[in-house]
Write a structure and sequence with these properties.
It contains two helices and six strands. The protein is of the alpha+beta class and about 80 residues long. The protein has one domain.
């Protein structure tokens, strides 16, 4: 449940999630890594300027750790399968 700037998380299986990170590079990078630890598929994207910021280095690093993730030519959106 979303109340202002607080987010309450409740356990349970996550099958698929779309996460809109607005223009926050920190959020998309952190949540990409977190999503690799959660069972299910997550797609992370953002606003117009965020999707023009490279994220391929993080995706490559996560792949080296055997995470299943992909992006489009090094840029968001990022799809992660945990």
């Amino acid at each position: 449940m979303h109340r202002g700037e607080d987010i309450d998380l409740h356990g349970g299986p996550l099958r698929e999630a779309d996460l809109f990170c607005r223009e926050s590079g920190t959020t998309i990078r952190f949540m990409t890594a977190v999503s690799s630890l959660i069972e299910g598929r997550s797609t992370l994207t953002g606003g117009q300027s965020l999707v023009r910021r490279p994220i391929g280095g993080l995706v490559d690093a996560l792949r080296q750790l055997e995470a299943r993730c992909r992006c489009h030519n090094g840029f968001p959106p990022v799809t992660v399968e945990g």
